[in-house]
Amino acid sequence: MAENKIGIFKKFKIGLEKTKKNLNTQIEKVFSSYKKIDDDMLEEIEEILIGADIGVNTTIEIIEYVKEEVKKNKISDPNEIKNIIKQYMLDALSEEEDIENKANQKVILIIGVNGVGKTTSIGKLAYRLKNEGQSVIVAAGDTFRAAAVEQLAEWCSRAKVDLISNIEGSDPASVIYDSVQAAKARKSDILICDTAGRLHNKKNLMNELNKISRIIEREYSEAKKEVLLVIDATTGQNGIIQAKMFKEVCQIDGIILTKLDGTAKGGIVIPVQKELGVPVKYIGIGEKVDDLQVFNAEAFVDAIFS
After folding, report:
1. Model confidence at 108, in pLDDT bands (50, 70, 90)?
2. Residue 112: which H helix or E strand, with range?
3. Residue 19 DSSP one-character state
4. What is this structure's pTM?
5. How far does CA 65 lie from the centroid of its chain?
């Protein structure tokens, strides 16, 4: 991991302050109100977890896990419940460490609906990868949205990476084709491809993504491919519904969860990963170009319960 571990934990704590106040503060109040663990106390905790956007299904699982641990370990102190919840979250969020492939020639396809922070995420990801010592090119494949190319150009300028683009309304596949040729000619390590976020139905979405994928496969078969879906954390369960739609039409390798600093409902991280079966790879916890962080389960849980 590129950053110092202490620095990661500090950034998570600052970025997730709203969620911490919403979740941890309320849970502490419940603990101080009860001298023993009973159904009433667990009901209050259940309401708090649902209010933090952890989701009904996941919340039910957490409460059942708490009951089992309390019974198994003969726990009577309400304050011990927090550690049980933390352990459940760590187990639910922890993945085998993803060893970044530092080899040349990787294509990252960024997908997601308009308004979720796709453009800013691309700029921040490009900045991050460049600072890790990799050469990056960005493809402006969202040619349908007004000013999309201009916004992406501004972010690429901040990240100091090259952008391949065409005029608004041009064929996205042609932009991807030109970008692949540029990445090959310049021997770039990473090609990040933006895609349209406003396609009217699943068939259009599938056709567009398939067309782009075929071009990448045909022209750049030697490159490793990765598809990252951008979800806005402030949209809550609607974000999960969007994600399920995308998952129906293409393989998703990871999630970029944006705007976590802007919501008190950061618990959405857990159902996103559990219900989709796709790991959260990056989280956005600020507006600056360096505020896209590699997701770290330990840092996340520590930030909202510290």
Report:
1. very high
2. none
3. H
4. 0.90
5. 26
